[in-house]
Design goal:
Two copies of one chain form a homodimer. The first copy, chain A, has ten helices and ten strands. The mean pLDDT of chain A is 96. In chain A, the strands form two sheets. Chain A has a seven-stranded antiparallel β-sheet. Chain A has a two-stranded antiparallel ribbon with strand order 7-8. Chain A has a single domain, classed as 3-Layer(aba) Sandwich (oxygen-dependent coproporphyrinogen oxidase), CATH 3.40.1500. Chain A is of the alpha+beta class. At the A-B interface, β2, α6, α8 and β10 of A face β2, α6, α8 and β10 of B.
């Protein structure tokens, strides 16, 4: 097997593992499975609908290849003749507004000139921010990062702040997480270490979410909470369709539209010039949708 | 007054006229009014929420100016130092799935090098296509176009087919209409004629919609019809956030976010890999979401 085939094989296994862990936590929902194959490559899209906690959850695996067009060069940030890419991406939308939306993507790119790299990101988008949950989330990510390279967490946390951001709203998407790209094997970390890093993130992902599902999956919520969730989902749609690089890359490179846009929430609302009532959970959440919050240490001080 | 001030003044008046005609047809809903002012310019956003027929309707007027950055050059398709633009844009989302979504935009651009032009578009997006309604809509547009220039309708109808199109879905947004840009005063039509052309479109817009409101505004509809409407609204969101030039121009040039994204529906749904039941109104509608349908003449043959 070539390098990318090895990565793709493991990623495909992890897709199943993620689904199995999430099904166990949801206790009701089951992931369906849809294989697709197009000129660009193929993939497996697994979707869970109307679970007891997850309203719409998707876990994608894809393995694609193609020519590096000028437009693709912009995405890749590298020049080459051909590229191949294997990746996992997942977004989970819960029923309950007290459970956050979560997202992960890990990907491996290989060019025909021998250059290869990992990229990815994992971020949490609470409809209603709980500072302690956000701190726990960041602490878990930092521990995984630190076990590979002490530079990863601070650099990738900042990158996430900048990437998961809606300029037109002057809001972060949620409480951030980590984002990285062009992570190439080199003096600091060899291929196997970087591979293990992405695998560690992907296997931690459903565990992190299971804790959050168990904590608030059945917490009572008001109509006001649900309404707010629909507005926050609207922002999620805005981010994914306007800024998300994976969505753009997927749609422009001829990927499978339904598998790419499965990230969108089951329902989203928009209301002109909505201003939440002063002092409520909505306003408190908006005040925390900022870059450069040191989630791990801020509570201690 | 300079030319653009004259245009802006008339556009602002038309905004009021559009709202007045729509309020009359709705019989219940009233347009609110919000003035905004930013570095780029100012505008008035008028929104009607939860009318008897219109669920969320917006009519925007804006008058903006700024430097022509390299990015702005791409939008304008012209080089210059400074630009100014005045425009009306409107989108109406009805409660009833048997009433279409409608959209209009008319705009006037003026550069500091003396170049000026009109642009705009009007298109109809039925959730459920009625061929005769679509033909009537196109016939009305053709009559307006023909009274100014016989080349307008055929050229602008084709432009609309190409513009109001979602490549990732291989679907037109709806039954099209007309789209035009860089319409400069010249040998064929002088400034006043082109100005009158955009004014004619903008004043016809609420009249066209009033007929459609009256026809189906209170028609009984099923849960299935409402569900389908929510999916079609999802497609509308996709078009507006991924492709719409006005949205991109507005957000990137520092426009008023709430006034730009007021075009989004009150609610939209997405379901993975949804396939409508065979032979139903959904499937029939999907089959008509194609370019190059000759709406006016096809029924006759």
């Amino acid at each position: 097997m070539t390098t990318i085939e090895t990565v793709a094989k493991r990623f495909a296994e992890i897709q199943r593992e993620i689904c199995a862990v999430l099904e166990m936590a949801d206790e009701k929902g089951k992931f369906g499975e849809k294989h697709w194959s197009k000129e660009i490559g193929n993939g497996i899209t697994r979707v869970l609908s109307n679970g007891s906690i997850i309203e719409k959850g998707a876990v994608n695996f894809s393995f694609v290849k193609g020519n590096v067009t000028p437009r693709m060069e912009q995405f890749l940030g590298e020049k080459a003749g051909k590229y191949a890419a294997a990746g996992i991406s997942s977004i989970l939308h819960p029923q309950n507004p007290w459970v956050p939306i979560i997202h992960i993507n890990v990907r491996f790119f290989e060019l025909d000139n021998g250059i290869c790299w990992f990229g990815g990101g994992i971020d949490l988008t609470p409809h209603i921010i709980d500072f302690k949950d956000a701190a726990d989330f960041h602490r878990t990510l930092k521990e995984i990062c630190d076990s590979f390279n002490a530079r990863f967490y601070p650099e990738f946390k900042k990158w996430a702040d900048d990437y998961y951001f809606l300029p037109h709203r002057n809001e972060t998407r949620g409480v951030g997480g980590i984002f990285f790209d062009w992570l190439k094997p080199g003096a600091e970390n060899n291929f196997q270490e970087l591979f293990n890093f992405t695998v560690s993130l992907a296997t931690a992902y459903p565990e992190i979410y299971s804790v959050l599902m168990k904590k608030n999956g059945f917490k009572p919520f008001s109509e006001r909470g649900k309404k707010w969730q629909q507005f926050r989902r609207g922002r999620y749609v805005e981010f994914n369709l306007i800024y998300d690089r994976g969505t753009k890359f997927g749609l422009e490179s001829g990927g499978n539209t339904e598998s790419i846009l499965v990230s969108l929430p089951p329902e989203a609302n928009w209301e002109f010039d909505y201003t939440p009532p002063p002092g409520g959970f909505e306003e408190k959440t908006l005040q925390m949708l900022k870059k450069e919050i040191d989630w791990i240490n801020e509570l201690k001080s």
